[in-house]
Specification:
Elements: H1 3-15, H2 19-33, H3 35-44, H4 47-54, H5 64-68, H6 71-78, H7 90-100, H8 107-115, H9 120-127, H10 132-141, H11 156-161, H12 179-189, H13 191-209, H14 214-221, H15 229-233
Helix pairs in contact: 1-2, 1-3, 2-3, 4-6, 6-8, 9-13, 10-13, 12-13
């Protein structure tokens, strides 16, 4: 099967909700023609189709797609993940941890690629949503111990002034390939992106305190045609099946 035919088959399976079948088609290509052939196809697939496959991360098995996706391809997928309206962020956290911390990867390359795209800091803020108080504590005092809420937050200028201070917690103490390690890398290796992410995270926390739901909060930023997670989980709708501003690879 030539690459364009495989891309069409993969997109058809994704649109029908058969994510397992779509991934199997990609895996079969790697098995028969090698990893380089799969990398060519991944480079041609629209971000929404790559996202449909990698967000269904299963930690019980290793995915060749997760192993070969590049930082740039992954970043383009991450910034549109919010279209699924998954309020639990389970899929977002799962795929980010699996790919950013994969054995051969440089996590900073993936984080930088995400930060370079519009919507990247918002995607990172979504990743940390459930840990807002501990991320705020980490920004303020360098530890992950939640602070007493005094209503006072470090200003952006103050955060920038201490961006390169010596860590109070060493990386090897929190090398869990999860949110703590990712937060540590952002703060001490890419501080500008950490501060940008924290600014967005604070805005989301304020919206929550004001009683705005996720949809109202998103409408304040940008309404870009989201789909209900429940529908995608049952295969009734996926971003690939909806109209998109992205140009198709075929």
């Amino acid at each position: 099967m030539n690459h364009l035919a495989l891309i069409e088959k993969t997109q058809t399976l994704i649109a029908a909700g058969d994510i397992v079948g779509a991934e199997s088609a990609l895996v079969e290509l790697a098995d028969t023609e090698g990893d380089s052939a799969l990398m060519v196809v991944l480079d041609l697939l629209p971000a929404k189709d790559i996202l449909a496959v990698i967000r269904e991360y299963d930690n019980s098995k290793e995915s060749i797609v997760n192993l070969l996706v590049t930082p740039e391809q992954f970043a383009r997928a991450v910034v549109i993940e919010k279209q699924y309206k998954d309020l639990t962020r389970t899929h977002l956290r799962g795929m980010m941890n699996a790919i950013i911390f994969r054995e051969d990867a440089d996590p900073l390359e993936f984080l930088t690629a995400i930060g370079d795209l519009e919507g990247g800091s918002e995607a990172l803020a979504d990743y940390f949503t459930e840990k807002w108080d501990r991320i705020e504590a980490f920004a303020c005092n360098g530890t992950f111990d939640a602070m007493k809420d005094t209503g006072e937050l470090r200003s952006k200028a103050d955060l920038q002034a201490v961006a390169y201070e010596k860590p109070r917690v060493e990386q090897d103490e929190i090398s869990d390939h999860d949110w703590m390690e990712l937060a540590w890398l952002l703060r001490y290796e890419i501080p500008d992106l950490f501060i940008e992410m924290l600014t967005v995270l604070r805005a989301k926390a304020r919206a929550h305190d004001l009683g705005l739901d996720e949809e109202e909060d998103d409408e304040m930023q940008d309404d870009d045609g989201k789909v209900e997670t429940g529908d995608t989980d049952r295969g009734r709708a996926t971003p690939a099946a909806r109209e998109s501003d992205e140009e198709s690879a075929i």
